[in-house]
Amino acid sequence: MSAYSALTAAGYRAQVRDKTTVFFTFAFPLIFLVVFGLVFRGRSVEESGFSYLSYTAAGVLSWGVANAAVFGIGFTLMQWRSDDILRMIRLSPAPLTAVIGSRYVLALGVGLVQSVLFVGVAMLPGFDLVPDSRWPLLIPVLLLGITTFLLLGVIIGSIADTPESVAGIANFLMLPMAFLSGSFFPLDAMPDWLQKVSMVLPLRYLNDGVSAALTGRGDLSDIGWGALGLVAFAVVFGAVAARTFRWTKSS
């Protein structure tokens, strides 16, 4: 427990010292919200009758939280391995669960602040997002989403050895996934074959769960299927992460 607390505290201090990263972690999703809010203001999707904002707000929030979880632990594991910090932790009594658990707590904290800030801005005049009455269900959905994408970040951080490779792999996965999963553009307006392709992407399930909980676009079954999809991906990513994790560059 002392190792876990020490790693969490050290990770928090390192995170808040990097002002640029902190700023863009929270500002990046808000920039997308402002851009999409201005472009699609007053417009609705013909296929569903819901406003574009009900799609883009939930989708951008999902993408922002997932992105932060992936990049946060991906860069940390790569850097700690390069600096031999992971090797020193391995020689200590601290277990691997303390390393991942400390980053998990920080990812949850970042996701919570992101969500509160994002929804607060989306409710301002001009965006006029009105949360659905079942918005509390957003909390477990985001919890599962952060868990799933943090495990994906563990995989990326374990196989990448440079900051450039972490950024390259993460962007290669997250940017196309955002478009194909409906984060930036409503899936209802996409071809049927593309909607089917999105079913094999974890961000699709996070988008569906967040949309149903936050904006009411969907019912409880959408939240349930979104949660089940995230659990399934978390199990797969967890198994792969356990096999790919490296304490050093060679092992």
TrEMBL record:
Task: Name it.
Answer: Transport permease protein
Keywords for the protein's UniProt record, in alphabetical order: Antibiotic resistance, Cell membrane, Membrane, Transmembrane, Transmembrane helix, Transport
Give the bilayer topology.
Multi-pass membrane protein
Glycosyltransferase keyword on record: no
> Family, per the entry?
Belongs to the ABC-2 integral membrane protein family.
Subcellular compartments: Cell membrane; Membrane
Q: Which residues cross the membrane?
A: 21-40, 60-80, 101-125, 137-159, 166-185, 223-242
Question: Which Pfam families does the UniProt entry name for this protein?
Answer: ABC2_membrane
Q: Identify the InterPro entries for this entry.
A: ABC2_TM (IPR013525), ABC2_TM_bact-type (IPR047817), ABC_2_transport (IPR000412), Nod_factor_ABC_transporter (IPR051784)
The keyword Cell inner membrane belongs to this UniProt entry's keyword annotation: no
Q: What positions does the domain ABC transmembrane type-2 occupy? A: 20-248
